[in-house]
Amino acid sequence: MAYRSAEHPAGDRVVLCAECDWLMRLPARELGQSAHCPRCHHHVAEAAQPNAQQPLAWAIASLLMLALVFVFPFLGFSSSGVGHVMDFVDSARSLIHYHYGELAAVVLATTVVLPALYLAALVYLYGGIQLGRRLPGSVAIARTLRPLEPWMMSDVFIVGVLVSLIKIMSLADIHIRTGFVVFCIYSVMLIRTLTLVDWTSLWDAIAPAPSMVPVIRGASGRSQGVVACTACHTPFVINRGHCCPRCGKRHRAHAVNRLQLTWALLATAVILFIPANLYPVLYTVQLGNPQPQTIAAGVLGLWHHGDWPIALVIFTASIVVPLSKIIALAWLCIKARATHMDHAMTNTRLYRMTEKIGRWSMIDVFVVSILGALVHAGSLISIRPGVGTIPFAGVVIVTMVAALTFDTRLLWPDTSRRCSTSHTRDPIG
Ligand SMILES: [Zn+2]
Ligand SMILES: [Zn+2]
After folding, report:
1. Inter-axis angle of helices 101-108 and 90-97, nearest 10
2. Is the pTM higher than 0.85?
């Protein structure tokens, strides 16, 4: 079970672009080389890595750094002689204390639980490759990993911490403790680990690609009944069971009917956006007097205090991004099932931007969790979450799921007839 085993003996292979449905030849990559689709520039193969040791080492180191986050205090707060130190788990514990258990689950899942599972799975997979053995369950584990990637938000959490600190700087003295520094290092290491995962070589090592029937490259997969597995990215001719022959994942022939699901999710997001902005997302309790604060009121308050850069960050992340994401996805749903090439690239770029920026809306949810845990100064001042946080987190999650359900292949027409002169028949798998 050697790393990059299947890539070199045969040299080239055929891949199907997951975004524009284009079948193309992928030449054997040199070390460090990645590959892009010639039609839509989508990343079809990550930078080739020389071995499994590097990602394995980084995954282990990231896991250890994550464990250290729980050892040290995270942030300190003091006001008028009353002090308080929070550790990382307090950001979720305070939400549970105020009966927002579901938000606590979201905060813990996106910052530590999912990244920890992801890293542990990488250690298992790369450990098996290093040992030269296919460990039990490797294929099932690898199949479930990639969908976790958009939901790992430690970098967003760091921005949430910084925004929180600037928000309350005028109210109290803030102390950054070792735990926060360790969390920042863990976040950087996690991102570095993600860049070292070469999925093409990893799949070759744990489940060699099956041999398949010849297909025409330089044409769409749709025109030949070929789809790319969403887990292992192997192109295969759609079969009766709609199962990927390499990893066993069930697959749809062409997800046209998922458009209705995307529309339904967008409608849900619009409905949730109303209470998210009408109800307070937090209460500042000073001398026993709770002052509710909606998202818009928080932005205006920051603006009037002269903290306009933070006001702009919150306004962009909490209002502009979710709204523009809903509008952009609705536009893309209207433009789906394209019959000509005009604007296909522009619409695909719009989708990519929508997909990338959506997770940053979680900043405000993290701000509420951090402020609720940090600002405790008896009856003098405290901050607790407001009911508006739940529909707001709902908007962020539902729009992210809506983006994931959208099938970008629908933005590209089936151009197989137009490109018939350049057709070449190649085996896939
Ligand atoms: Zn493409
Ligand atoms: Zn597969």
Report:
1. 170
2. yes
